[in-house]
């Protein structure tokens, strides 16, 4: 499978990054191992997780996804060298052992968070480490200084920013240049056919200008763009019901119609087209997408191989481009 540079990080990733948020949550350990085996064998060798996955689930404390991946790596000698391992820190993990907030981008917390992630993953180093959420209470220089120490200690290879605004990202890049500190080499925003305004405009323009890699999450809009959910009744019993219902609008249904049309031209599924559309956007490295079965891994592989025509892209663009960015 082809590999794409992740900005100036020195890493390459396939056209779709495997999202690991489901491991230990909606995919049990045995299923997660099967998904990971199938994905890497097919060439989907970049894994995206976070310390906070899946703290939102009842009875979970966070770290479940990293722990599953760690046990999988232990059970698969030699696998670490075959994957690009991505994790994140900065989301709310409750309290640290001293009773202080286990969240944010302070040096105090990040230096604890990376050690905890490495322990759960059972590795000495992660390839790419994201600031999961911006923290305006912590100066960029403090955060980047912590990353500098982590890189020099061999705990991380490169860094990225997730959920940053254009102003926050620009400020971090300017601070890095001014202070001689590591630069963010990628961005992880929300982006898909029905949430285009989360990236398009000044944020994507900045990433293009600075040469940053972009690996968006929610490429399938929490599953809405699979085309399996077309009414509120369809999502009533789903774990992501709240997220799915957001898209049950005339605009969302129009996007599904456009996906149906393009998918029919390629004898493909709407999900294949939705992910291929993200990957085809100028300045985007490739989307993150999760799988809870080996069959879904096959869908991700099909999406990575799908090449959309100029007409396909124009039709999808016409059906979904926000009016504010039409020009």
Automatic annotation (TrEMBL):
Keywords: Oxidoreductase. CDD domains: AKR_AKR9C1. It holds the Pfam family Aldo_ket_red. Residues 15-319 form the NADP-dependent oxidoreductase domain. The keyword Methyltransferase does not apply. GO terms for cellular component: cytosol. InterPro entries: AKR_Detox_Biosynth, NAD(P)_OxRdtase_dom_sf, NADP_OxRdtase_dom. GO terms for molecular function: oxidoreductase activity. The keyword Oxidoreductase applies. This is Predicted oxidoreductase. It comes from Albimonas donghaensis. The lineage of its organism: Bacteria, Pseudomonadati, Pseudomonadota, Alphaproteobacteria, Rhodobacterales.
């Amino acid at each position: 499978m082809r590999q794409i540079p992740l900005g100036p990080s020195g890493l390459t990733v396939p056209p779709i990054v495997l999202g690991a948020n489901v491991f230990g949550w909606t995919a049990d350990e045995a299923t997660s191992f099967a998904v990971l085996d199938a994905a890497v064998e097919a060439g989907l060798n970049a894994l995206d997780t976070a310390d906070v996955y899946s703290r939102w689930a009842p009875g979970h404390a966070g770290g479940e996804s990293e722990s599953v991946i760690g046990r999988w790596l232990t059970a698969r000698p030699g696998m670490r060298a075959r994957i690009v391992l991505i994790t994140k820190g900065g989301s709310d993990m409750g309290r640290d052992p001293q009773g202080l907030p286990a969240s944010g981008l302070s040096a105090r917390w990040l230096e604890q968070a990376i050690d905890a992630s490495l322990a759960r993953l059972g590795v000495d180093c992660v390839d790419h480490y994201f600031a999961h959420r911006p923290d305006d209470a912590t100066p960029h220089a403090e955060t980047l200084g912590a990353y500098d120490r982590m890189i020099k200690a061999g705990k991380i290879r490169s860094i990225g920013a997730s959920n940053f605004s254009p102003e926050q990202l620009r400020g971090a890049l300017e601070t890095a240049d001014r202070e001689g500190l590591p630069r963010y080499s990628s961005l992880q925003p929300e982006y898909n056919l029905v949430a285009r305004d989360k990236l398009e405009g000044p944020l994507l323009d900045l990433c293009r200008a600075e040469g940053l890699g972009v690996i968006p999450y929610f490429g399938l809009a929490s599953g809405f763009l699979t085309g399996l959910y077309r009414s509120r009744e369809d999502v009533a019993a789903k774990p992501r019901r709240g997220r799915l219902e957001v898209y049950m609008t005339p605009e969302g249904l129009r996007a599904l119609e456009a996906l149906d049309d393009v998918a029919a031209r390629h004898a493909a599924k709407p999900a294949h087209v939705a992910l291929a559309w993200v990957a085809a956007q100028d300045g985007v490295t490739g989307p993150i997408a999760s799988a809870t079965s080996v069959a879904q891994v096959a869908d991700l592989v099909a999406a990575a191989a799908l090449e959309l025509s100029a007409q396909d892209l124009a039709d999808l663009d016409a059906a979904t481009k926000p009016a504010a960015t039409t020009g």
